[in-house]
Amino acid sequence: MDHIVFEVGLALVLVAAAALLSARLRFSIVPFLILTGMAVGPHMPKLGIVDLRFIESAPLIAFMGRLGILFLLFYLGLEFSLGRLIKAGRSIVVGGSIYIALNFALGLGFAWMLSWPLREMLVSAGITTISSSAIVAKMLVDLKRTANPETEMILGIIMFEDIFLAVYLTIVSGLVLSSATSFSQAAISAMIALAFMLIVLTLGRKATPWLNRALNIPSDEVFLLIIFASLLLVAGFSETIHIAEAIGALLVGLVLAETDHRQRIEHLVIPFRDFFGAVFFFHFGLTIDPYALGGAIWAALGAVILTLIGNFVAGMLAGRSARLSPRASANIGLTIISRGEFSIIMANLGQAGGLLPILQPFAALYVLILAILGPLLTMQSRPIYAALDRVFRWRKLKDANRRLPRAEDLLDEQERG
């Protein structure tokens, strides 16, 4: 207990070193933080008097990591705005359904090809379907894409995934933990999740004038305390009704983005977002056992390939359903490829249910690969789209459609003639 402060300080030194290296190489910090955490995790051996396993400080580092998720999603909500989300409601439902259906089908089919039993198939499909909202949020912020036209679809898919997760976790946990399932409980969980989101967004939009007056506080200290209290209260309450706490943080950000104090909140929150966000990815690396990855290499690589294909196709379809350009649609598929916290939750469920031992290393390796590839593909989305466009000719097709006269225009010309 006496070494907790020292361990946390040492962990922050490693986080800072990883951040410095990524800055020197001009690369995303996320893979560096994950790999650093893996290198000094509790699964690694003690080297003489040097012990970097962070055993005593693990609960504190884990809590700081949870705060990182909250600040990442809260800031993303601030950047996005509630008005844009409501306006894009229909396209989000369509795009989210396309994304979930395609990736779930691929995940289920891949597990069936591996001849895994039914319960393992369902857990595997959950691992490969849900993207990492934390990594996606980090990339959108780092690459300054929060104002891009495709961001509302990306954010909508993240929220749609949470509703799906509430239903799916209820069903699968019944199958895995008790060999039974309750569809009535699943329906109730889904309705509670959806109702909570709609209530928060609706009340927040109606309360904007009141929030403008209430937050008109000269002291930054008091102002920040009220913002943090609201963030943690709503996020914590959302978890009690089986909605991811990260989505609660996102909802708070969306509501406060409509107020006159948005820029002030952003300015004060950015240091906390960067600090706790870095700790989250470091802690995620701590949870991965490198020695357990070998037996799941081929299964994880196969799942990664399917995910890359499925995400890109789903992104193109979702973007086109919202009438986005081919380039914006490609950005959707290349941005939401990363897998993370939700995949680990599904793997832990399989472990609790006594399913095949391969699920844990499979999930860890799968998440690690996509946590590295995801930021890479997001950063290089422009040259990737340009290369694919030379094959599929999306840009020329779009230009041809623009030049093609509409039927009503031809009729007008005939009448004038």
Protein architecture, described:
Helix 5 (89-113) runs antiparallel to helix 14. The protein folds into two domains: 61-278 and 293-379, Na+/H+ antiporter like fold, CATH 1.20.1530; 382-417, no CATH class. The chain contains 20 helices and no strands. The chain has 417 residues and is mainly alpha-helical.
Count up the helices. Answer: 20
Q: How many beta-strand segments?
A: 0
CATH architecture of the largest domain: Up-down Bundle
Compute the average pLDDT: 80
How many structural units, i.e. domains? 2
End-to-end distance, in Å? 90 Å
Largest sheet: none
Give me a quick take on this structure.
By secondary structure, this protein is mainly α.
What brief labels describe this structure?
disordered C terminus, 417 residues, Na+/H+ antiporter like fold, mainly alpha, 2 domains
Per-chain topology:
Blueprint lengths: L3 H22 L3 H11 L18 H23 L1 H6 L1 H25 L4 H12 L3 H10 L8 H28 L4 H24 L1 H7 L5 H21 L4 H12 L5 H25 L10 H25 L4 H10 L5 H12 L6 H21 L1 H12 L1 H10 L3 H10 L1
Helix pairs in contact: 1-2, 2-13, 3-7, 3-12, 3-13, 5-6, 5-8, 5-14, 6-8, 6-16, 8-9, 8-16, 9-12, 11-12, 14-15, 14-17, 16-17
